[in-house]
Structure formats: structure tokens, C-alpha cells
Structure prediction request, 192 residues.
Amino acid sequence: MDTELLIENVHQSVTEVITEFSNNPADFLYEADLQCLLYTSLRRRFSPYPIPPQAKELEKLFGYRPLLNPVKSEFPYNVDGLSAKFDVAILDHQQDPLRRIWWQPCRFGIELKLWQPDGTGNNIFSDLKKLKAYGEIAKSRGKEFSGLALLFVHPGAEERLANLQTTIAPAISANEISLHVVTRTNWRGVIV
Prediction:
């Protein structure tokens, strides 16, 4: 899959989720609600682009050579001692035949946070750090990686945004890590 098509499909799915959130933020009580909606939208958009996996022991594990939708949820990675999970991931079409199917390279990682009006909701910057760390490893291996951290903010929690500069237009770019803040009335990028 070429990079332009990848970015366009991600952008369309993110826009779909943001539109639903903006229309009725209270319908999303938990971060997982947003994650599931994004996962479903991405999975639908990427279903025409399956991955023929090249993972080791594939036939032994499954008994056949499957085709995989590249979109995964709670995708774990473990590279160079760095181990974590992305909320949503799009696997790299260039599979690593030396790794098992569960540890394949990620091409695009997405992290989501939801700030609720009662003050709950975690810090998005730890997720941003995770995306950046994976991006550096990918780059050192000559691989492409893009990452997106999305912070959804319920009305009533917007005062927590006072220290974030949300003055740039949101952009989803190839081989970059970005942070976007979404409120009921605004979708902006953050200078990181």
C-alpha cells in the first residue's frame, strides 16, 4: 500500500470519529468507545488491502497461510527492548519473516485519550512519547512509521487544555508523529 493511500484512509476514519464525537460527546463515555469506533472504521477501509503474512511458523501455528487485515487493536510490540501497546495499529505490509505473527512491524500507530468532565482521563504525553520512541526505532531500521495521538475532550473538561497550544491546523502526515485535540467545536493540532 502506498503512503498517500494509507494517510488518506486514516484521515477519513479519524474524521468520521471526530464528527460523531462532535455531534454528541456524551455518547462516548469511555476511551474504549472511541477506540472501537476508530478500529471499526479503519478495518472497513483497509479490508481491500490485506497482508499476506510472512511470519515464521505461520503454517505450523494456523495450518494455512491466511490473509490479514492490517488493522489491529491493542497491538503489542517488542523491539530493541521497547515493549508497549498501541490502541490501534496498521501493520506494515513488509512483514518480518524472522518474527512471529504477533510481533510484526507497525506502519501507523494511534493512541487515544478521553478527558471527561469529572476530571478523569490520563495524560496524552506518555502516549506521544511511546509513538515517538517507536518511530525512532523504525527510522533506525530504515522503516517508515507514522503516529497520531488523539485527545478527545468532553465539554466541562476543556479548562484542562489551558496549557496546550492548539493553534495549528491538524495534519496527518507520513513519517511524523502528531498530537490532535478534539473538542465538541474544534479539531486542532498541538505544537509538540
Residues 3-44+79-90+106-189 form one domain. The chain has a mean pLDDT of 91. The CA atoms of residues 69 and 144 lie 19 Å apart. The chain has four helices and six strands.
